[in-house]
Amino acid sequence: MKAETNTRSLSAAEIDEINAELPHYEDKSAVSIEALKIVQKHRGWISDDSLVAIAEYLKISPAQLEGVATFYNLIYRRPVGKNVIHVCDSVSCWMLGSDRLSEKLCRHLNVKPGEMSQDGEYTVLPIVCLGACDRAPVAMVNGELRPDLTDNIVKELLGE
Amino acid sequence: MATIEVDGRTYEVQDGSNLLAECLSLGLDLPYFCWHPAMGSVGACRQCAVIQYKDAEDTRGRLVMACITPVADNLRISLNADVARQFRADNIELLMINHPHDCPVCEEGGECHLQDMTLMTGHTSRRYRGRKRTHRNQYLGPFVNHEMNRCIACYRCVRFYNDYAGGADLEVLGIHNNVYFGRHEDGTLESEFSGNLVEVCPTGVFTDKPFSDRYTRKWDLQTAPSVCVHCSLGCNTTPGERYGELRRIVNRYHGDVNGYFLCDRGRFGYGFVNSDLRGRFPRIERQPVAVAGTAIEHFRTQIRSAKGIIGIGSPRASLEANFTLRELVGETNFFLGLDETEHDLLESILGILANGGIHTPTLRETEQADAVLILGEDVTHSAPRLALSLRQSVRNATFDLARQLKIPRWLDAAVRQLEGQVQSPLFIASVHATRLHDSAAETFHGSPEAIARLGFAIAHSLNPESPLPSGLDEAEEALAALIAGRLREAKRPLIVSGTSCASLAVVQAAYNIARALPAQNKGLLYALPEANSLGLTMIGGRRLKDAFARVQDGSADTMVILENDLYRRAPAPQIDAFLDAARHVAVIDHLENPTTAKAGLLLPAATFAESEGTLVNNEGRAQCYFPVYPAQEPILAGWEWLIRVMDNPRWHHFRDLTSACAAAIPALAGIERFPAEEHLPKIPRQPHRYSGRTAMHADVSVIEPPPPQDCETPFAFSMEGDTVHVPPALLPVVWAPGWNSNQAINKFQDEVAGPLRSGNPGIRLIQASGMLPWFDRIPPAFVPERGFWRIVRLPNIFAGEELSAHSAPVAERFPDACVFVNPEDAETLAVSNGDSVEIRYELELSSLRIPVRIDSTMPAGLLGITAGLPPFRHLPNGARVALIKAGPEAPAKTGENQ
Predict the structure, then answer these.
(1) What pLDDT does B890 receive?
(2) Counting beta carbons within 10 angstroms of the beta carbon of residue B189, is it exposed (0 to 12), middle (13 to 18) or buried (19 or more)?
(3) Which class is domain A83-158?
(4) In chain B, what residues touch A71 (CB-CB under 8 Å)?
(5) Cα separations in angstroms, B520 against A12, B358, B369, B517
(6) Domain B2-96 of CATH type 3.30.930.10
């Protein structure tokens, strides 16, 4: 998988999955988001080379695809750890101390937001409202909602 | 019309327009950023907020954004209401939070729309004390600097670059308060219109790079109205000078021609004016002389002792210079100095424009076309600004759809949502793929013959009286019928052709199509090779080959060559023989070139920036350019050299010369009113803030020299004079109180994006009238010959024009030298992309070794070369060449193995 992250060509599996999306849209460029998600699923993140490969396949300019890729929080343009923890920083969570919790988590993992932990296990990123304000503060770990966080955030999220 | 009330006063305004545009048209100061007169409204920046009231009873009103508020009868608004003013001040304070305090070192300072608007809202002190976000800037090529920290995220750059100009390599990246306008990686901006970002950006994110290198504030630049000399379209420009150097060119608004935008050749091509290749002194038999008088005496002696004298004019010299030469040598001794084919083409085109009875549209009108056929041109390269206009024409169907859906035309984001549903057809028949292909409904690639034959077939399909080419294949017939069908349906169809194919048949086929079109409101436009190609043809004169004959038969032994490098006109051996046979060769030109190298007498000519002249553009519009700064003696304007050498000149001044030219040549009678009437007091070329006048030459002498006199034009080389009664067409610089950027142009139009108040510059000399018989010389199909290829010279925006190619930043944008071949031809030659071939051409003793670029759109049997690139300079259009796959490189050069 590591080797693949730096290739300028898409794998057969990636192409198959992208092709499966094509019929849902009017034109190829509309598949941008899905294609980015598919390639990220295979490679963990979207490298410059991956970006160019997708752009070439969809016949759009790399700049256009970069515009899409950098717009979305869940497309990673830098390598991320095996577990990606998104801590909500929108208003409800912020009022209930998400800043403090996020800081605590980062300190425990010895990372800054966006960095990968030394063992390659974790990356902590902020994210906008996850739609669970009634259970703030919340985070999302590998796509799963983790509500009602407290100062025990390390234990709650990492089980440590 | 609609009646609206603004702050208690009533105004009549355009119904259906938006409130911001109408406020600006009324001359009211309402700040804005994201709105642009050519690009419409998106409501992104929230700066143009006003209060709208329900009725006379409503005292509170509500905030609306003027740019997205349609004008309607009885609309009541306030610009001055406290709430509106406060909102605008708060908004700009927020926009400015991340903006650096770097105005003193920013190139935009002094002509910054952001500065102007900030001052206008009264936000003069900053309260924000937090950290500002910073960005890494990108390398964007030789034309444009990038300084993203200054960005206020108005989105104008990407709206121009992508939406308006069709670019794909500049985007907005990121999200919310962290957006970045740039490329996906460092690299040259690919669009041929990238320089417009400098003016489109309301602040200093995108600035003019060559100007930065030799920077001067706008208020310290001496300027004059000018016309671009780098193609036949005649875009209006404002060149600026400081310390005797031309420092930059910016757009000068012309409502009918270039509007708000220039191409990169026009904006950055001026470097030749400051070039080391400029002749600064006259040269007699290779020896420089210090004063003009000596050279003139010598010139006079030569003329007196001549057995016969001939003059060779130039399509890049002014009407006045060409006319004076014709007067000096006599009408029968005046030659146009064009190559044979070009001479034919231009005479034919002039005949069609004058007697063909079909309207030649302005650039602005081309944007209104609802179906366009380009026959044989790659307009991005041969008439670049036209490509930008044609790109707009395909949107007309979208505008129609928007109208049906009651979406106003100026509501840009909403109208753009409809794109892709409908498009006005653009058909392109060209030698190979062009830069407009992404907008084209159908494309066709073929030899000039094939393009002409397709054209004739379309004309026949429209009107059976137009002759039909025989032997078309089914696909060609079907395409011709399809194109003819779409053109027939159109209300405002436009045919674009030109001289790039060097084919009379293409030019004539274009006329047949235009004539055959049923629409009343149809247009025919030809792209021509040079800035005054049409003007020269209107003066008229004999062929270059007749000049050769005159020297050959001994009836002429002295020649005067005006601003024309003859080595660009005919094969070198022919020109060598011609120049060697003459006893005296006098050459008047700006830059050293192969012809000046052969001159016995060289007279250094002022460029467009240091002299006055009239040029006739491709639509037949005569326009005047004026000296921005005085030519440094002994450099003189071409016309002045020629007048001074006359024994008893009948004219001494430029104005008299223009009048004489109008009187002598009926086709040019319209220029009689040119240049503008005597303007007294004169119009100052220097802004009222011009600084350093007394000190700028102090390194040479502490005595302040008197300002140079200008006896030829309405302008003075001074800060003093009349700035109030100047017609906008003659404004040296666009400026209004509180409006220091080029956007001050709003103050000089009655309606934003409309004509300049008291008229756009120039006079159209040709009124379409009459009708020509159907052209019927249909060429046979081109059949590739085994083992041989035919050269086809492909125009290029950066390499293709003689003068701009000497501008360093333009030269950086030259494409790689390569030959374009069809994939099957490449297979025959057993070459792949990048392999070298040797080109063997009968007239050249040495062969040329060049890498191959395989181009699937290139027709078989043709060898495409980029016109203007040094290796191809002497390879003429139509030359028959043999190609051989080149063996391994000589040992001296490594890196390429078989």
Answers:
(1) 55
(2) buried
(3) alpha beta
(4) 174-175
(5) 56, 9, 12, 8
(6) no
Cβ distance A48 to B185 less than 8 Å, yes or no, reads yes
Largest CA distance in chain B: 93
Nearest to A67 among B171, B185, B420 (CB): B171
Helix/strand/coil for B636: strand
CATH 3.40.30.10 residue ranges for chain A: 83-158
Best probe of the A interface among B148, B161, B173, by most A CBs < 10 A, is B173
Boundaries of CATH 1.10.10 in chain A? Answer: 3-71
Burial (0-12, 13-18, 19+ Cβ within 10 Å), B876: middle
Asked if A62 is an interface residue toward chain B (Cβ–Cβ < 8 A), one would say yes
The ipTM, to two decimals, is: 0.91
What's the CATH number for A3-71? 1.10.10
Q: CA B15, B16, B19, B25 torsion: positive or negative?
A: negative
Are the beta carbons of A63 and B174 separated by less than 8 Å? no
Mention every residue, 6+ apart, whose C-beta is less than 8 A from residue B77: B4, B5, B6, B7, B19, B50, B51, B52, B53, B61, B64, B66
Is residue B556 within 8 Å of B308, Cβ to Cβ? yes
**Domain spans in chain B, listed from the N-terminal domain onward:** 2-96, 295-340+537-675, 360-521, 788-885
CATH 3.10.20.740 applies to domain B360-521: no
SS3 B214: coil
Per-residue pLDDT tens over the stretch B626-639: 999 999 999 999 99
Tokens encoding B211: 């100007």
- Give pTM, 2 decimals: 0.95
Hey, what CATH topology would domain B295-340+537-675 get?
Rossmann fold (3.40.50)
- The residues of B whose Cβ lies within 8 A of any Cβ of A are 168-175, 180, 183-185, 420
Interval A7-59: pLDDT, tens: 678 999 999 999 999 999 988 999 999 999 999 999 999 999 999 999 999 99
Q: Which residues of B414-453 are buried (b: 16+ CB within 10 A; e: fewer)?
A: bbbebeeeebbbbbbbbbbbbbbbebbbebbbbbbbbbbb
Which CATH fold topology does B788-885 show? Barwin-like endoglucanases (2.40.40)
Question: In this model, does residue B891 exceed pLDDT 70?
Answer: no
Write the DSSP string, A84-112: EEEEE-SHHHHHTTHHHHHHHHHHHHT--
